[in-house]
Amino acid sequence: MTEEITQRQNRRKVREGLVISNGMDKTAVVAIVDRVRHRRYNKTVQRTTKLFVHDAENDLNVGDRVRIQETRPLSKKKRWRLVEILERAR
């Protein structure tokens, strides 16, 4: 029984993105850029998604590159939490 529990995988999504806003308390907005091929024209298109991220220590700055993970709903729009800061803004 305990072997099954330890082998269970974490199916939560992990994304990397750029912090575009940190004006709120304990919350940052992270932009995720996906590059997809257009179905008809086969041109590469960039799709940007804004995600609200929980930042408990308020240590994110605009321009930071971060890794975030999906989590339970923390507020109306906030469903992601900060995993690590990959690169600080210069």
Describe this structure in words.
The structure is a single chain. The chain is mostly beta strands. It has a single domain (11-87), classed as Beta Barrel (OB fold (Dihydrolipoamide Acetyltransferase, E2P)). 7% of the residues lie in helices and 51% in strands. The chain is built from one helix and five strands, in the order αβββββ. The protein has one helix at 2-7, and strands at residues 14-21, 27-37, 44-54, 65-70, 78-87. The protein has a five-stranded mixed barrel with strand order 1-2-3-5-4. The protein is globular and about 50 Å long. The N and C termini lie far apart (49 Å). The mean pLDDT is 93.
- Count every helix, treating DSSP H or I runs of 4 or more residues as helices: 1
Oligomer: single chain
CATH topology: OB fold (Dihydrolipoamide Acetyltransferase, E2P)
Strand order of the largest sheet: 1-2-3-5-4
Number of beta strands: 5
Query: How big is the Rg?
Result: 16 Å
User: Poorly predicted ranges (pLDDT <50, ≥5 residues)?
Assistant: none
Order of helices and strands: HEEEEE
Q: If you average the pLDDT, what whole number results?
A: 93
> Main beta sheet, described?
5 strands, mixed, barrel
Number of domains: 1
The CATH superfamily bears the name: Nucleic acid-binding proteins
* CATH class category label: Mainly Beta
Residue share in helix: under 10%
Strand residue percentage: over 45%
CATH architecture: Beta Barrel
Quote the distance from N terminus to C terminus.
Answer: 49 Å
Q: Which term fits the overall shape? A: globular
